[in-house]
Automatic annotation (TrEMBL):
<keyword id="KW-0418">Kinase</keyword>
<dbReference type="GO" id="GO:0006000">
    <property type="term" value="P:fructose metabolic process"/>
</dbReference>
<dbReference type="InterPro" id="IPR052562">
    <property type="entry name" value="Ketohexokinase-related"/>
</dbReference>
<dbReference type="GO" id="GO:0004454">
    <property type="term" value="F:ketohexokinase activity"/>
</dbReference>
<dbReference type="Pfam" id="PF00294">
    <property type="entry name" value="PfkB"/>
</dbReference>
<dbReference type="InterPro" id="IPR011611">
    <property type="entry name" value="PfkB_dom"/>
</dbReference>
<dbReference type="InterPro" id="IPR002173">
    <property type="entry name" value="Carboh/pur_kinase_PfkB_CS"/>
</dbReference>
<feature type="domain" description="Carbohydrate kinase PfkB">
    <location>
        <begin position="38"/>
        <end position="326"/>
    </location>
</feature>
<protein>
    <submittedName>
        <fullName>Ketohexokinase</fullName>
    </submittedName>
</protein>
<dbReference type="InterPro" id="IPR034093">
    <property type="entry name" value="KHK"/>
</dbReference>
<keyword id="KW-0808">Transferase</keyword>
<dbReference type="InterPro" id="IPR029056">
    <property type="entry name" value="Ribokinase-like"/>
</dbReference>
Length: 349
């Protein structure tokens, strides 16, 4: 039931054009079947109120910003945004407050082509909001987050037709115990299926929350953030994947992105693969760069890329994102690349 990292999950999308030298042209926006090949992202949705500042403000000062904008935020939500831009059929699942922000969020999802049909709209609570200060001088993003009074999604809320999904991605939340039950449902669903028809799962361990530890052996791919790794005493991406690999399940892969130091991945029992970061030149906006990396990684693996190619692609997309405001410019960026594929399968789910 476990997928090796080389398994052609992406064969469902039939997007790999195999060439004689076993290299394939990776095309990011081929038509895909929304009914069976969807990528589902679960986790946080909030409104990011972003102030673009010349410099980081002084305390107790009164000043003008260059611009202010609202953006859909939250790790899982951002990952869904980038997946959609990359051409993947994508759905976001979470709770959404029935507050004045709902109209903005709903319209924006519709514009982005992201399905939210299974979301739970919750009355009488406030929407999570982040105030984000972007500094043009340093490229830093400072986030002040209010999680509001919106409850987390529970296992009971996980009422989806699992037959619709090729991949389910979880941003690890404080409600990780509920997410473990959802992951168990997916494992049970997979148990009776042929390897090519199974749902691939991933979890993101980003914030240093004790509850997240229970997710590490429950998915096929485990994304460890630099913050999570350093909080656990690992000070390089390689040390991080080597330190966490014993905790992941058989057949799984641990992945770690380390900002300007690139990214690496280690399938259990196999060597570590490291790739360098790809810099955009000028850093404009790093908000959601990690979420972008995760999206690009999932997308590339879904398309059947081998780990090294997927890591290179993810570093490229995350680097490009840091050189632009928000995510939508990725739509107009040349992100095609030569992806090495193991060429083991074809066809759609
Ligand atoms: C970026 C982000 C923002 C959000 C914050 C929540 O990774 O998801 O969109 O405001 O982190 O921690």
């Amino acid at each position: 039931m476990f997928l090796s990292p080389q398994t052609k999950i992406g064969s469902r999308n039939a997007a790999i054009i195999l060439q004689q030298n076993s290299f394939s042209l990776f095309s990011i926006s081929e038509p895909v079947n929304m009914e069976t090949n969807r990528i589902l992202c679960l986790g946080k949705l909030c409104v990011d109120i972003i102030a673009e500042c010349e410099d980081f403000p002084q305390e107790d000062s009164d000043q003008r910003c260059k611009r202010q904008r609202w953006q859909r935020g939250g790790n899982a939500n951002n990952t869904s945004t980038v997946l959609s831009i990359l051409g993947a059929p994508v759905e976001y699942l979470g709770t959404i407050a029935n507050s004045h922000e709902l109209g903005f969020l709903r319209d924006d999802y519709q514009r982005a082509g992201i399905i939210i049909d299974n979301c739970v709209i919750v009355d009488n609570c406030s929407c999570p909001v982040s105030l984000v200060l972007l500094s043009s001088v340093s490229g830093s993003r400072t986030i002040i987050h209010d999680s509001g009074s919106l409850p987390e999604l529970t296992h009971k809320d996980f009422q989806v037709d699992l037959g619709s999904y090729a991949w389910v991605h979880f941003e690890g939340r404080p409600s990780a115990a509920e997410q473990v039950k959802m992951l168990r449902d997916i494992d049970n669903h997979n148990a009776d299926l042929e390897e090519n028809d199974r749902i691939t799962t991933s979890v993101e361990l980003e914030k240093n929350r004790p509850a997240l530890a229970q997710l590490i052996d429950k998915a096929d791919y485990v994304f460890i953030s630099k913050d999570y790794a350093t909080a656990h005493g690992f000070y390089s991406k390689e040390d991080a994947v080597e330190g966490f690999v014993d905790k992941i399940r058989e057949g799984a892969t641990v992945i770690c992105a380390w900002g300007e130091d690139g990214a690496c991945a280690k399938p259990k029992g196999e060597p570590t693969i490291s790739v360098p970061a790809i810099s955009p030149g000028t850093i404009i906006d790093t908000l959601g760069a990690g979420d972008t990396f995760n999206a690009a990684m999932i997308h590339a693996l879904c398309k059947g890329a081998v780990l090294q190619s997927a890591l290179t692609f993810a570093c490229k997309v995350a680097g490009e994102k840091c050189g632009m405001k928000g995510f939508s410019g990725l739509r107009y960026t040349d992100l095609s690349f030569e992806a090495e594929s193991d060429g083991s399968s074809s066809g759609s789910k």
